[in-house]
Design goal:
With 733 residues, the chain is an alpha/beta fold. The chain has 5 domains: 199 residues, Rossmann fold, CATH 3.40.50; 153 residues, P-loop containing nucleotide triphosphate hydrolases (Rossmann fold), CATH 3.40.50.300; 109 residues, Arc Repressor Mutant, subunit A (Orthogonal Bundle), CATH 1.10.10; 73 residues, Orthogonal Bundle (DNA polymerase, domain 1); 105 residues, ATP-dependent DNA helicase RecQ (Arc Repressor Mutant, subunit A, Orthogonal Bundle). It contains 36 helices and 17 strands. A 7-stranded parallel sheet has the order 3-4-2-5-6-1-7, sandwiched between helices. The chain has a 6-stranded parallel sheet with strand order 8-13-12-9-11-10, sandwiched between helices. A two-stranded antiparallel sheet has the order 14-17. Helix 19 packs across helix 22 and helix 25 packs across helix 27. The longest helix is centred in the C-terminal third of the chain and has 22 residues.
Length: 733
């Protein structure tokens, strides 16, 4: 064998190098046994949860072996992170290298030179790099200690992140060397790990299976309501802590990152659509704690060595439980508590199902099964930890969860639902199995749409048979019956429901069917009351704030509306902000105006709340991201660059009037803009000061007041509007 045997690597050497190179006093779990097995020249399959120390199982033996170990890895970011970590442990900068498409020709030559000279002990490669003939020839001329297949679930078609190029690895490795193989992953069901071992031809190798249980992680599913408010409120309550927010699409990543940023949270986006330089910069900012939250697609996280991630949030339901387990496993790797929150809306499931349309039948079947498991996990009333571990083939006593999931902490009520299931199944049969869940739920409560009306003559006997229950109830029943496989969905028929053999058997011999009701989450009871547009809920407080504004405006010699617009006072009387930060969230305020004028208002509101024992609405108003369709960010940047109105309006296909309206909304929200280059061309300094002086004396500093005061041959509508905007920007913001 190319690799040293255990006879030459004794326990003392292993422990000395563990301490000397990596700084650890002892091995974790089965690490030492796995390392010895590999050093003895044997193949192995390692299933170890995220944070369990998988990388040590091939890094340490590589350092102790003759030749170079080839580590197959799916992501460039993962490779870079591990190489940087290894170099940090060594005074040899060439100890580890990557060989992938990101390298220049000269860099690739240097890597191969270091390998030939014996300086490099670990080489991280992508499957695409392995298959190149020039690389195969190079590896044939060098000593390969072993192959490590990291993230080995990518091999399996049943895995959550299948990559076809991974299926060719065995053939590629056979062309290079007969060195031992170690395959590693954090997520593999019994079916997936069998597929991995079979494909790599290591079926008879030793399987090392660690427990999937992460006792320090709290699992929770929440309804997807007012998602922006929930995210902002939750993250603000975890100030200074690191977290990840996962989204399914790049567009949603960008959108959520901007929402968090504009609400004062240090967040950055991460997805495959960003250029590599920006991705690396954002990843490094997260690792160096220059940003608290990364908003990402699943492209982020593999191999990221950040032990103190305190929360992982899924904005969208994951495609599979394997993906969910791997992504949530990035929290609490230091042993501290990690909170895992997933926002669940069945509409997200329907989106995932739509992605399957048009794919090969086999791929559809796999996708449907993975989605079904995700729904079942989200809908289940049993211990989520027990459900998740069972999925990975591990039994778990729910008593040991100790309230570390929402279902154990706050159990869902269950009731007998046999009669509802019978009614649903009979309705599907009466409908000739031609409706999707959305229509079926409507039929149950007696609502119709154009499609239902077309078939009303055939379904009138069962139309409205379940109207004593809500449409949400019937949607929940449909999902629970689907999970129990009494019904199925025809993906190619756009989700039409069909009765399965199990469903037909149930109708012949009905059995007890416990149904669960949704949690009554606190967030639902904390929604602020609604009011008519432009009306304060607390008129008494509104009048107090209006008097305060008037007095403060007189002290500063400014129109009252410069301090805060009336709409802002109304929002204060609805939301009761008692800190400067909360004040900055109020409509038309922003952080600058809140700091400049907000203290007296905040103090007054706080005193009012305490005296009247007011229970405040917890969800404060969320500042929204500048509307991309109106290009507000572009407008601000263009004005800063001293670009003229005509050029801005032309580039965005807007009229001058619409452009000025956009600028008005920007400054009224508390943001400064630069109009000096425009106004200096339009009028002299005396005219500018004349308008500014006028606005200081008005009650509302409105356009109408100025229009009445000045003749049209003196100032045009456009000039007055721009001067008013400039006044608000300079004096108010």
């Amino acid at each position: 064998m190319d690799i040293k045997t255990t006879s030459s690597i004794n326990s003392e050497i292993l422990h000395d190098n563990l301490k000397k190179v990596f700084g650890f006093n002892k091995f974790r779990g089965q690490q030492e046994e796995i390392i010895r097995h590999l050093l003895n020249g044997n193949d192995s399959m390692v299933i170890m949860p995220t944070g369990g120390g998988k990388s040590m199982c091939y890094q340490l033996p590589a350092l102790l072996s003759e030749g170079v170990a080839i580590v197959v890895s799916p992501l460039i970011a993962l490779m870079k992170n591990q190489v940087d970590a290894l170099r940090a442990h060594s005074d040899n900068e060439s100890i580890a290298h990557v060989l992938n498409s990101s390298l220049s020709k000269s860099q690739s030559i240097q890597v191969k030179s270091d390998i030939s000279e014996g300086k490099t002990k670990l080489l991280y490669v992508a499957p695409e790099s392995l298959i190149k003939e020039e690389n195969i020839q190079f590896f044939n001329n060098n000593q390969i200690s072993f192959f490590a297949i990291d993230e080995a679930h990518c091999i399996s078609e049943w895995g959550h992140d299948f990559r076809p190029e991974y299926r060719k690895l065995r053939q590629i490795m056979d062309n290079i060397s007969d060195s031992p193989v170690i395959a590693l992953t954090a997520t593999a069901t019994p079916k997936v790990r069998l597929d991995i071992m079979k494909n790599l031809k290591i079926e008879n190798s030793k399987l090392y299976l660690d427990s999937f249980n992460r006792s320090n992680l709290f699992y929770e599913i929440r309804p997807k309501l007012d998602i922006a408010k929930q995210l902002i409120k939750y993250i603000n309550n975890r100030k200074g802590e690191s977290g990840i927010v996962y989204c399914l699409s790049r567009k949603k990543v960008e959108e959520i990152a901007e929402v968090l940023q504009i609400n004062g949270i240090k967040a950055l986006p991460y997805h495959a659509g960003l250029d590599s330089k920006k991705r690396v910069a954002h990843q490094d900012a997260f690792l160096m704690e220059d940003c608290d939250v990364i908003v990402a697609t699943i492209a982020f996280g593999m191999g990221i060595d950040k032990p103190d991630i305190r929360f992982v949030i899924h904005h969208d339901i994951p495609k599979s439980l394997e993906g969910y387990y791997q992504e949530t496993g990035r929290a609490g790797r230091d042993g501290g508590k990690g909170d895992l929150i997933t926002f669940y809306d069945y509409k997200d499931i329907e989106k995932l199902e739509k992605f399957l349309q048009g794919k090969p039948v086999a791929e559809q079947e796999i996708g449907r099964l993975l989605i079904m498991e995700t729904i079942a996990f989200s809908e289940t009333s049993i211990c989520r930890r027990k459900y998740l571990l069972h999925y990975f083939g591990e039994e778990f006593d729910a008593e040991k969860c100790k309230g570390m999931c929402d279902n154990c902490k706050d159990p869902k009520p269950t009731t007998e639902g046999k009669e509802y299931v019978q009614l649903l199944l009979n309705t599907i049969i009466e409908c000739k199995e031609r409706f999707k869940p959305k229509e079926l739920a409507k039929i149950m409560i007696g609502e119709s749409n154009s499609l239902i009306k077309q078939h009303m003559g055939q379904i009138e006997n069962i139309f409205g048979k379940g109207k004593e229950k809500s449409i949400q109830f019937w949607h929940s029943i449909i999902r629970q019956v689907y999970v129990k496989q009494l019904i199925t969905k025809e993906i190619e028929s756009y989700g039409v429901l069909k009765i399965t053999k199990n469903g037909k058997d149930f109708l012949i011999n009905p059995f007890s069917f416990k149904i669960t009701e949704d949690h009554n989450y606190d967030l639902l009871s904390h929604k602020p009351s609604t009011s008519q547009k432009g009306q304060a809920l607390d008129s008494h407080l509104f009048n107090i704030l209006k008097d305060l504004r008037k007095n403060k405006a007189k002290e500063q010699g400014l129109p009252p509306a410069i301090l805060f617009m009336e709409a802002s006072l109304i929002d204060m009387a609805n939301q009761y902000p008692i800190t400067i930060e909360e004040m900055s969230q109020i409509q038309g305020v922003g952080i600058g105006k809140a700091k400049k004028y907000g203290k007296d208002f905040v103090d007054t509101i706080k005193e009012y709340v305490e005296e009247n024992e007011i229970e405040r609405a917890i969800d404060i108003v969320v500042r929204t991201v500048a509307n991309k369709s109106n290009d507000k960010i572009y407008i601000i940047q263009s004005l800063d660059k001293k670009i003229g109105l005509e050029d801005i309006s032309r580039s965005k296909s807007m009229t001058i009037g619409d452009l000025i309206t956009e600028i008005e909304s920007i400054v009224e929200s508390g943001t400064k803009v630069n109009l000096s280059h425009i106004l200096n061309e339009m009028m002299d300094t005396e005219e500018l000061e004349e308008i500014h002086d006028f606005f200081k004396t008005t009650e509302k500093f409105s356009f109408d007041e100025a229009r009445t005061e000045f003749e049209e041959d003196e100032f045009s509508d456009e000039e007055i509007r721009l001067l008013r905007i400039d006044f608000i920007s300079k004096i108010g913001n």
